[in-house]
């Protein structure tokens, strides 16, 4: 029987972080970029909880992860409001085409 250790959590976190960075860099759609940011934040949450469980650092990883989740929810709400406003004014959500905020 295989026991789940810190290495397993770090591998999953690295994969999520890599996919998030890939989504942020390669996607032109603003909603997809936001989803990439969420993947990066979730990889940080996995690291916080894993180090809290397996490390003896004296901090509560679950409390920090809860703070990150609340912060991500607020970020998503504000960012989606900005994306909707950009779509209303420019009829596009591509981040490459949104370079003229004066018009």
Textual characterization of the structure:
Helices cover 74% and strands 0% of the residues. The chain is an all-alpha fold and 103 residues long. It has one domain (6-92): Helix Hairpins (Orthogonal Bundle). It starts with 5 loop residues before the first helix and ends in a 13-residue tail after the last helix. The mean pLDDT is 87.
Number of DSSP strands? 0
Please tell me the CATH architecture by its name: Orthogonal Bundle
What's the helix count? 3
| Level-1 CATH class name | Mainly Alpha
What is the radius of gyration computed over CA atoms, rounded to a whole number of angstroms? 17 Å
Straight-line N-to-C gap: 62 Å
Order of helices and strands: HHH
Structural class: mainly alpha
What is the helical fraction, as a range of percent? over 70%
CATH topology: Helix Hairpins
The percentage of residues in β strands lies in under 5%
Main sheet: strands, sense, barrel? none
Taking all residues together, what is the mean pLDDT?
87
Shape: elongated
The low-pLDDT segments are none
Number of domains: 1
Provide a compact summary of the structure.
This is NADH-quinone oxidoreductase subunit K. By secondary structure, this protein is an all-alpha fold. It has 3 helices and no strands.
């Amino acid at each position: 029987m295989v026991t789940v250790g810190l290495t397993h959590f770090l591998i999953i976190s690295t994969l999520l972080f890599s996919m998030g960075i890939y989504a942020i860099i390669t996607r032109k759609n603003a909603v997809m970029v936001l989803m990439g940011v969420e993947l990066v934040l979730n990889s940080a949450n996995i690291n916080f909880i894993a180090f809290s469980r397996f490390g003896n650092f004296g901090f509560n990883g679950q409390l920090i992860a809860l703070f990150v989740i609340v912060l991500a929810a607020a970020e998503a709400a504000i960012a989606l409001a900005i994306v909707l406003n950009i779509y209303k004014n420019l009829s596009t959500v591509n981040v490459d085409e949104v370079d003229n905020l004066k018009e």
